[in-house]
Amino acid sequence: MEWVERVLNVRQYSRDGERAPHKPLLLLYALGRFRHEGPRAIEFSAAEEDLRRLLAEFGPPRTTSPGYPFHHLTNDDGLWEVRTADGGPSPGSAVGPLRSRGAAGRLHPGLAAALAGDSALLPRLVRALLEANFAPSLHADICQMVGLELEDAELPAAVQEKLGRRDPAFRLEVLEAYEFCCAFCGYEGWLNGAPVGLDAAHVRWRTYDGPDRLDNGICLCALHHRLFDRGVVGLTGDRVITVSRKYVGRTAASGNLVLELVGRPARDPQTGLARVEPTHIEWHAQQVFRGPARAA
């Protein structure tokens, strides 16, 4: 099996559609370490806080342990292996034994050899992992955190078909529906006759079966799109804007741009056009928004 297909076939925890990108985040972290250090083993005790931060920022809203992917990725053949200081196998996913027994993980030698022999493989793996698991607005932030470059990479046709292709008409349909205006803050901007700083945001991410349809789209400025995908801001079922209590903004700009959104109704699309489907809002509230929400 081709390496890109292997990383996309990694088994992930699944219950009621819950996001669980723990293993993809570990693989991205390991690829970043490989890029800078080669095939050296990664000690769990040295990587624990990095992985904890990655999971906190880009994983599901619930608290999760970095020991989970560090151990369980060994169950996916040919990608990752873990050995304790005395040469034994992984002691499990509990962080205590992983620390005390000096557990260290590394990319499987076969994968490491393939990466060393093909300079184009690493960016292909990175691109596939990002597209399969995360909203596009998060890709650059994830790469920066794990020490990777966000590069364009050609994916095999079968992989691209599996990931699906974006509908090029989706962006214009959403922006026109909201009259080229951010549904949260009212921003509109133009440069040489073209809208600038406005995005067509998916409420339910495409990577989790979110369709390229108006009832899954909302026009947001670049700032609020990124905050929406990071779970800082969200929506209630009746399209009232929420802001996470975990978000802290101390300046006047933070208050004006984020905190004052609490309790404000989101802008509607033009009369007669589809609002965001409540089931997509519910998915975002459960899988992305970093609750609880601030009181209005």
Automatic annotation (TrEMBL):
The keyword Phosphoprotein does not apply. Residues 182-234 form the HNH nuclease domain. CDD domains: HNHc. Residues 4-149 form the ScoMcrA-like DNA sulfur-binding domain. Transmembrane segments: none annotated. It comes from the Bacteria. GO terms for molecular function: endonuclease activity. The keyword Cell membrane does not apply. InterPro entries: DNA-SBD_ScoMcrA, HNH_nuc, PT_DNA_restrict. Keywords: Endonuclease, Hydrolase, Nuclease. NCBIfam families: PT-DNA_restrict. This is Restriction endonuclease. It comes from Actinomadura spongiicola. The lineage of its organism: Bacteria, Bacillati, Actinomycetota, Actinomycetes, Streptosporangiales.
